[in-house]
Amino acid sequence: MSKIIAVAELRDNGLRNVSFETISLAKQWDDESEVVAVVLGTADSKHGQAMIHAGADRAILVSNEQLHTPTAENFTQALMQVINEEQPTGIVFGHTSIGKDVAPRIAGRLNAALLSDVVSIEGQKQDAVFTRPIYAGKAFEKTQGKTETVLVTVRPNNIEVLQTDSSRQGDITVKEVELVDLKTVVKEVVRKVSSGIDLSEAKVIVSGGRGIKSADTFEMLRELAELLGGTVGASRGACDAGYCDYALQIGQTGKVVTPDLYIACGISGAIQHVAGMSNSKIIVAINKDPEANIFSIADYGIVGDLFEVIPLLIEELKQSLK
Ligand code: FAD
User: Fold this and answer.
1) What pTM was estimated for this model as a whole?
2) CA-to-CA distance for 50 and 258, rounded, in angstroms?
């Protein structure tokens, strides 16, 4: 029986949502293959169980102390040991920092096709056609992998996850791996303070551009985001001006986001920014320039001064939440 490996990702000892999308894509790719979830860096069976409830047929928990702090090097080594044993025809990763780093290394070692940043799939098995954005989201490419094993990275928030079925059963095995000759070892990770919501998985994002004019205004955006149950993002203009951290940058050289609601405040809508947010379900733009490019992709546009509009929105929301 052929197999597809779905690579799960952990954060704060919980599975990231994209893990469930890897399973969903694997099932759509070949519903007769065995879908094997691989969770690296844990020996906690609850993670394997959750992957099986989400549609995997079995789960492998790959354990080694070094894997608690993922690096491309230790993940690649550990995964290669699983791949050599399982001989999958397909491997699905999240299109996340670690997925983007590890998948090409594995593809290189296997001399296999890698289709990255996939947003949808049509057809099945060898006939499966994967769609991925190219030219910073200006066009979409339909592509097929023609090697014995094909690797795919899936853009978060694009593949509908399967309904959880807690009655699903499957084997969960722990695989101890040996990692040898690691060239880098992470000693400590010092986290930046954040709202706790991962930008790439956020449902609501309030984003600030150069038009916000100061770091203080960012706190106003944060208040609006929190009222909406979301988080804040930024254009490179805002990051370059020092209004916020580069970790918040959305766009071609920043994060790619697909929230249900994206509110762009004082952002002109440069192509490099749009590349990171144009797949948002609803886009609201607040800009004082009626000719700003952001209005050409917005579902709702507010032509006005953000320093007047945002306090009004905050006030209105507070009233309605009372
Ligand atoms: P601006 O273009 O300066 O726009 C500010 C906007 O604020 C204007 O439209 C203005 O009308 C409005 N405004 C001003 N005051 C107010 C007010 N009081 N109320 C309402 N509106 C107001 N950019 C990204 O964002 N992400 C990327 O990943 C990225 N990658 C890049 C990669 C490369 C190789 C290059 C060359 C560029 C990249 N850029 C990226 C930069 C990009 O080209 C733009 O320069 C940047 O997005 C502009 O940011 P901005 O819209 O905040 O600023």
Assistant:
1) 0.81
2) 24
